[in-house]
Amino acid sequence: MPFERAAKTADVAAGTIHEVQMAGKPVALANVAGKFYAISNTCLHRGGPLGQGSLQDKIVSCPWHGWEYDVTTGKVVQNPAAGVACYATEVRGDEIFVDIA
């Protein structure tokens, strides 16, 4: 699947994470010091929305039960053997594109 437009860069300020829908998939789009990362929006624990969590540096905490994920890899901080899907991102001009394949 090719890269698809996810958001404008201005929509995801540095140090924040947001939810976007892409081809019916919920994606969490994060801005870590001006670099954009995309992971699955669904926490492995109970399906919480990661895009509604708090972002500290590159770690997002699920708002439901606090599971922590590294947005650069999708890995669970406490157990790197587990993780959510991590998607390639590209910035083109003022838009963010994500490949959810």
In CATH, the topology is named Rieske Iron-sulfur Protein
Largest sheet: 6 strands, antiparallel
What is the topology, as strand order, of the major beta sheet? 1-9-8-4-3-2
Mean pLDDT: 96
The CATH homologous superfamily is named Rieske [2Fe-2S] iron-sulphur domain
Rg is 12 Å
Number of helices: 0
How many individual β-strands? 9
| Beta-strand content bin | over 45%
What global shape is seen?
globular
Unreliable parts: none
What is the level 1 CATH name?
Mainly Beta
Which structural category fits the helices and strands? mainly beta
Distance between the termini: 5 Å
Number of domains: 1
Reported CATH architecture: 3-layer Sandwich
Write a structural description:
The protein is an all-beta fold and 101 residues long. The chain has a single domain (4-99), classed as 3-layer Sandwich (Rieske Iron-sulfur Protein), CATH 2.102.10.10. It has no helices and 9 strands. It has strands at residues 4-8, 17-22, 25-32, 35-40, 54-56, 59-61, 68-70, 86-92, 95-99. The protein has a 6-stranded antiparallel β-sheet, with no helix packed on it. The radius of gyration is 12 Å and the shape is globular. It starts with a strand and ends with a strand.
